[in-house]
Design a protein that fits this description.
By secondary structure, this protein is of the alpha/beta class. It contains 14 helices and 13 strands. Strands 10-9-8-7-11-12-13 form a seven-stranded mixed β-sheet, with helices on both faces. Strands 1, 2, 3, 4, 5 and 6 form a six-stranded mixed β-sheet that branches. Helix 6 packs across helix 7.
Length: 413
């Protein structure tokens, strides 16, 4: 069965709205994006051929502030995916008390098949076609298929078009162009920040935790290092080419070096191979899905052994699986809290750019930790207030109440 992220996020939206008694007029408005644009980018390729690339941008709701973040370059990108991710971004911002709306977008292309010139041309054309755009309206950030270089090209194109320097027009830039320190590590570090708070609330010792991490890219590898440094046993790790397990824990610094050399986690000394299903169902206390959406479903949720699942990826657990896990007594730390380190970092990046005063890494880390743990505690408290097992619904109710208040104050409904 194909995983429908738009339908799944819509189900959570409606349930949180019902439980939180959100104004029906607000819910009607939030049933679809406030603004979306699709356009086509013509490009002459290096070999002289001609191609046209589809692109999208969705601004889901901007009652709390300018829409921000998320630009994917992926051959599998479609408009429904962009809509759902923009909604999730709106909830992340609101649940974290960030004064921003939810934005998401991207280009349907495979960046691995493009030369640097072709990719740069696409990034520049993308930013030219965004209307409206800029720090007061819509601020693109990085996501799958984009990074420091892509966002640098986008910023330069924006400044070339407008004729003035504006570092807050684009997020996830390198520090030399007005970005913030700590950007690369923000999401993975945030995963650990929220886990530590959740572990404290659940009453188990972080150092005793056996952790399995599905996904060893930018997010998973950073999180794995922090779990390891905290004394956890990281017993299983996987990437797109396979998984590994070691009952007494993996040597994460050694594994990072192995991945750098071999391009995969498989065949790491002292480990045994794991399949994708075995990875999710292995013997662990904490499971961290950090790769793609919809990996824990009604078909495998009963076999999950972890007593805590920390969503480092967007929507790795389906709605049906979420219900099964909660009935089993598993603590589910939802994506809108667990992987929100990057959105808090982007807010700090914006604040630094507007003030033209840039913080040291200790300040950035401290602020990120404080904001993430506060958001988690607020969601837990709201879930308790509504007598819910689901921290996810607690976070969504908090977010919807803030969006509702902003829309009422603006006179939108």
């Amino acid at each position: 069965m194909t995983y429908d992220l738009l339908d799944e996020s819509g189900q959570i939206l409606r349930e949180a709205g019902r439980l939180g008694q959100i104004d029906p007029n607000v819910m009607e408005y939030l049933a679809a994006p406030g603004r979306l644009v699709s356009f086509r980018i013509p490009l002459k390729m290096d070999d002289g051929s001609f191609r046209v690339f589809d692109a999208h941008r969705v601004r889901y709701n901007d009652a709390l502030g300018p829409s921000r973040d998320g630009t994917r370059i992926s051959p599998h990108l479609d408009l429904d995916e962009v809509k759902s991710l923009a909604l999730i971004m709106a909830i992340k911002h609101a649940a974290g008390r960030i004064p921003a709306g939810g934005g998401k977008g991207g280009i349907v292309a495979d960046p691995h098949e493009l030369s640097d010139r072709e990719l740069q041309s696409l990034c520049r054309a993308y930013i030219r076609n965004l209307r409206p755009r800029g720090p007061a309206y819509d601020v693109p950030g990085a996501d799958i298929g984009t990074g420091l270089q892509s966002m640098s090209w986008m910023l330069d194109e924006y400044e070339s078009v407008t004729g003035y320097h504006e570092p807050t027009a684009v997020n996830d830039k390198p520090p030399i162009l007005g970005g913030s320190l700590g950007g690369y590590e923000a999401t993975g570090s945030g995963v650990f920040d929220v886990f530590r708070e959740a572990a404290e609330q659940d009453g188990f010792d972080v150092e005793d935790a056996r952790v399995a991490i599905q996904g060893f890219g930018q997010v998973g590898s950073v999180a794995a290092s922090l779990f390891y440094e905290a004394g956890c046993d990281v017993v299983a790790v996987s990437d797109s080419r396979g998984g590994i397990y070691a009952n007494n824990g993996l040597d994460i610094p050694g594994l990072l070096a192995h991945k750098q050399t071999k391009g995969k986690v498989a065949d790491f000394a002292g480990s045994q191979p794991l399949t994708s299903s075995e990875m999710l169902e292995c013997d662990c206390d904490v499971l961290v899905p950090a790769s793609v959406q919809g990996v824990i479903t009604a078909d495998n949720a009963d076999r999950i052994k972890a007593r805590m699942v920390v969503e480092a990826a967007n929507a790795p657990i389906t709605v049906a699986a979420d219900d099964i896990l909660l009935e089993k007594g598993v603590t589910v730390v939802p994506d809108v809290l667990a992987n929100a380190g990057s959105v808090h970092l982007c807010q700090m990046e914006r604040s630094q750019g507007l003030s033209d005063y840039y913080w040291d890494i200790d300040t950035v880390n401290s602020m990120r930790q404080d904001r993430l743990t506060r958001s988690y505690r607020e969601a837990v408290n709201t879930a308790a207030e509504y007598q819910l097992k689901s921290i996810r619904l607690g976070a969504w109710i908090n977010a919807l109440k803030r969006i509702e208040e902003a829309m009422h104050m603006r006179g939108w409904c």
